[in-house]
Each structure stands twice: as C-alpha cells, then as structure tokens.
Design goal:
This protein is of the alpha/beta class. The protein has eight helices and six strands; from the N terminus they run αβααβαβαβααββα. The protein has a six-stranded parallel β-sheet, sandwiched between helices. Strand 3, helix 5 and strand 4 form a beta-alpha-beta unit. The radius of gyration is 18 Å and the shape is globular. The structure holds 3-methylbut-3-enyl trihydrogen diphosphate (IPE) and magnesium ion.
Length: about 240
C-alpha cells in the first residue's frame, strides 16, 4: 500500500491544493444493473469513502465532496429518506477512520433543514476532528453556491459592514469555505457538463475535468487520469 502510494504520488509533478468532486451517476449506475436508485446511492457512498482513502495517500490538503444540494430536495421523498439513512451511516462509520488519519471534517451548506439525526452525526464528526492537522475534507450537504452567497451577504450586512469596505477578500471570509483556498481541480463524473450550483465562487478559475465514468465506478485509475489532465493544463488566471 505504502509503496504504491508513493510511486503514484511521484507520477505527478504538480498536485492540486484543492480538489472538488461532483459525484454524479449513482441512479444510472443502479438502473444499468436493474437495481433501485437507493442501491446506487449506497454504492456511490461507499465510493466516497474509497475516494477519501485514495486521496489521503496523495496528501492533497483540501478535498470537497458534493453530497446533497439545495435543489436535491426536489427528488421523491423515498429517495431522499433512503439517501440520508445511508449518509448518516457513512458519516458515523467514517469518524474513527478520519480521526486516525488526522483528517479534519468540515460541513459546508445549511445544516438547518437536514434530517435531525443526520445533523447530529455531522456535528459530532466536525467536533471530534476539529483539532486534526491533516487533510481538510469538506462535505457539502444542503449546499448551494447561490445560497452560500446569499448567506454571506446576510452576515456581512448583520456585521454592519460598509459598502466601501467590501472586497473579494471580505466576501471570501463570509463564505462557508472561509480560510480554504479556491478549487484547483474540479471533477464531475457521469458525462454531465455543468457546475450545478457547486462552489460557484471558488471554482471561478478551476480546471474542470469531465468524465463519462459513473460515480460508483470512478476509481483510482480515474483519479490518476484527472490528475494527469491537471498536470497538462497551463493555468494563466487571465494573464498570459
Ligand atoms: C448523484 O447521483 C448523487 C446525488 C445527487 C445525491 P444521481 O442520483 O444524480 O444519479 P443520476 O444522475 O440520476 O444517474
Ligand atoms: Mg445526477
């Protein structure tokens, strides 16, 4: 394990500081197998767990996973309930592992509105990893990029800031991701080519990698392909 990890890490001269993933395609993965969408979410959640493991070998300092959006509430109640049962179990299961790896778990999104039991799991996971010094794992639940900007504006106004004092840096301090650098590499699976309201501010200059692989099938080789893609990019940030 250790040998493999160091050799794969050496493959890339440039590693992103912050990777964000939109894990999409759980439903289609399940449909292809004649399984229920919930089974797809179960497998997709297992894969989030595996991805945290793979990526922790690379020591990429920030990883953000999109778990549930502010728009996903539009799905049938049965799917939403099933998904949160799986996710609560996932969070509870991941705590000992992430503590042992020194990972700091951070929730981004609106905690209120999420199922009570799930909120408790998240709060516990965040609290119990708060002083960890390793990789920061942001998990986005009830997250929307537009909602994040609205929440930031509300808090800026509540803090009595004057318009002349508003800069990009100030806005950033009020985002859920305050103190976390912008996204370098954004990955979306399942051949959907859109941001879907994910990290709209933080991905302004991200390199975006799309793949047709469905999320539950997205493995170590696929991460390596995404990292190779990142290495092939010339980032200019509007300059020359
Ligand atoms: C992603 O898979 C998981 C969530 C958005 C919670 P989907 O459920 O969107 O799967 P498809 O797009 O229907 O295949
Ligand atoms: Mg989808």
């Amino acid at each position: 394990m250790t040998n493999t990890s160091s050799s794969s890490v050496r493959k890339f001269t440039l590693l992103p500081t912050h990777i964000a993933i939109v894990p999409d395609g759980n439903g289609r993965w399940a449909a292809k197998r004649g399984l229920s969408r919930t089974e797809g979410h179960r497998e997709g959640t297992e894969n989030m767990y595996r991805m945290v493991e793979y990526l922790s070998e690379y020591n990429i300092p920030y990883l953000t996973l999109f778990g549930f959006s502010t728009e996903n509430w539009r799905r049938p109640e049965e799917e939403v309930t099933g998904l949160f049962t799986i996710l609560t179990d996932f969070i509870d299961r991941i705590i000992p592992e992430i503590r042992q790896k020194g990972i700091r778990l951070n929730h981004i999104g609106r905690l209120e509105g999420l199922p009570e039991e799930f909120q408790e799991s998240i709060i516990q996971a965040v609290e119990s990893t708060r002083s960890n010094k390793g990789v920061t794992l942001n998990i986005a639940f009830n997250y929307g990029g537009k909602a994040e900007v609205v929440d930031a504006i509300r808090r800026i106004i509540d803090d009595g800031k004057l318009s002349k004092d508003i800069t990009e840096e100030v806005v950033e301090q009020y985002l859920y991701t305050a103190g976390i650098p912008d996204v370098d590499l954004l990955i979306r699976t399942s051949d959907e080519h859109r941001l879907s309201n994910f990290l709209i501010w933080q991905s302004a200059y991200s390199e975006i990698y799309f793949t047709d692989v469905l999320w539950p099938d997205f493995g170590k080789e696929d991460i390596d392909k995404a990292l190779a893609f990142y290495n092939s990019r010339k980032r200019r940030f509007g300059g020359l």
